[in-house]
Amino acid sequence: MTRDELARLYRQMLTIRRAEERLQKLFADGLVPGFLHLSIGQEAVPVGVSSALTDRDTVSSNHRGHGHTLAKGVDLEGFFAEILGRATGLCKGRGGSMHVADLGKGMLGANGIVGAGLPITTGSALALKMQGEGHVAVVYFGDGALAEGVLHECLNIAALWQLPILFVCENNGWSEFSPTERQLATSLDKLAGAFAIRYAVVDGNRVAEVATAAGDLVAAMRKTPAPAVLECATTRIRGHFEGDRQEYRDSAEIAALAERDPIRLCAQDITQAGGSAKMLAEIAEAVAAEIDAAAEAALGAPLPRAGDILADVYTTTTRAGG
Amino acid sequence: MSEIRYIKAVNQALADAMEADPTVFLIGEDIGAAGGSFKATRGLLDRFGPGRVYDSPISEAAITGMAVGAALTGMRPVVEIMFMDFTTLSMDMLVNQAAKARSMFGGQGSVPMVLRTPHGGGLNAGPQHSQCLEAWFAHVPGLKVVCPSGPADAYGLLRAAIDDPDPVIVVENKALYAMKGDLPDAPRDRERIEIGKGRIVRAGRDATVVAYGAAVAMAQTAAAILADDGIEVEVIDLRSVQPWDEALVLESLTRTHNLVIAHEAVEAFGVGAEIAARMADIGFDELDGPILRVGAPFAPSPFGKTLEDAYRPNADRIVAAIRRTLA
After folding, report:
1. Which of the residues B129, B172, B274, B308 is marked catalytic?
2. Predicted local confidence at residue A317, as pLDDT
3. Domain assignment of residue A187, yes or no
4. What is the CATH number for A271?
């Protein structure tokens, strides 16, 4: 991968990182309502995968979905406004952090139910196959979702019907507060093998590896619709949610996370590819300015009007209710 | 006009909708080669091919969720869940996903999917193949629920459901599948029925019975029995449970001043409770007697014939309720 290609991916990763760090601060200041699940440490996965996608490809995500959403190209100000619960948010302040969606960008939504994106994306892949234009569907899920029944249903159907779906597992080793080995009696490569689904595993903290693997898998399924599994070994640096003190994690494990920071690794790759410290600093400066502008605009945006509670429950105006 | 059975009306509605709109497709267990457990989809695989009629594995959660995803991706899926009892396996996809997507995403899109499923007893199918769970879905903002009482309604409500931009649960009553009725021969003459509107199926001045599904015929029988005693009962077929035609029920109540609600579902915490509560509020001044409900007792639907016969509501119980509210 060239220096400039890496720099483009680096900038996207840094945007996600800085956006989440800003959210972390806003949350600590009491400005983010509800729960906040940060994907700090996992940015290389959505950025690498999205480099293979267009707006016509669909993705769905999970509770830790900020990176997936931003990497799909949604508007940064609308993203902040949504998580801050503002009327100008991508979902008018009705969804929040766990439900950011942008259907125009093919982003079918983050999701508050573990594994729920799997059937939705499998159905999206069926629709895309029926439409026959070579688009693909991508579902992001964590290792915690491997224990959900719908994963097995969807792997089976995707294989039976040869659907153009990329199952992207972000394996960060933790299912909420429990290590994966207490959650799963098998492994994803074996599950994929059981359904004869193409499987690849990458270091999910090396964006170039993710991008190359996703690019190959997606290119193949655009030509001939078929499912694939991409397992990305990655790292959850923050807790399950903000406020989780991670007392269940070993201090040595946490100390080792910095070594594997995907942004640091990408910066090293850029340097090796001939990039300068000045180049990295310019990117950081540009990203910081973008984040400042988006966050400030969102903080100044109006709150939703209480009178809008019933809007958009149904498309039609026929009165439903109780 | 041709006389056709309820199940054939469902089949005709699916065929007409698929003919009219290439984005309509069917997904369900044994709906293709086998034509469905109750044969609602008979012949559709041959006519429309495997790219429109998907015989799915036994994976209710996945196929319901796939309908949500396909609907968000520009299609109009119609899912069949073989028995309403099995929708328990589809619940996350219906309640957390289909129902909420539009509101939760700020009105960006909608989920134009239909889930067809049969409820009801009378076939000695036992506790896991007979339940009437429509009140669960009516309780979830974002879902619509319709319940046809005969062949013409089975056609018209299903066509309206497939056209609807929001998720609609079409609850068919399996004991009615053999019921006969008229449907026009020319496709253009076959009418859709507006979701949310009820219909007065028998006019009367002394009491109103609100019913839906199989209870409509029971209410009509009850009305005929009471007519012999000079009691004129008005029977409303609700047709649509969510949204329900509150204005029609209230208007009828202002003429009859007595109200009974009948359904096959368990009486407690049911559709009847909602209608009773609303009428006790907005129709309070019109009431000359207590609002009474006729439904199944608070027990699982039993298997044995004597037990199931005793369990299911019938015309006699509706007659008794009307006499009691008039007393």
Report:
1. B129
2. 57
3. yes
4. 3.40.50.970
Q: Is B257 designated active site?
A: no
Residue A7's domain comprises: 3-299
User: Catalytic residue at B129?
Assistant: yes
**Contact assignment for A116 to B65 by CB distance below 8 Å:** yes
Residue A276 within a domain: yes
pLDDT tens, position by position, A5-38: 999 999 999 999 999 999 999 999 999 999 999 9
Residues within 8 A of A (CB atoms), B 249-268 only: none
Residue A319: closest C-alpha in chain B: B243
Residues of chain A with pLDDT under 70: 317-322
Which one from B60, B172, B267, B274 is the annotated catalytic residue? B60
Query: What is the number of domains present in chain A?
Result: 1
Residue A100 in any domain: the answer is: yes
Give the residue among B143, B156, B55, B48 at the shortest CA–CA distance from B99: B143
Residue A322 lies in a domain: no
The shortest C-alpha distance from B262 to chain A (Å) reads: 18
- From chain B residues 286-325, the ones with a CB under 8 A of any chain A CB are none
- Interface A-B, measured as beta-carbon pairs within 8 A, has a size of 161
Interface membership of B51 toward A (CB under 8 Å): yes
pLDDT in tens, A234-244: 999 999 999 99
pLDDT per residue over B282-304, tens digit each? 999 999 999 999 999 999 999 99
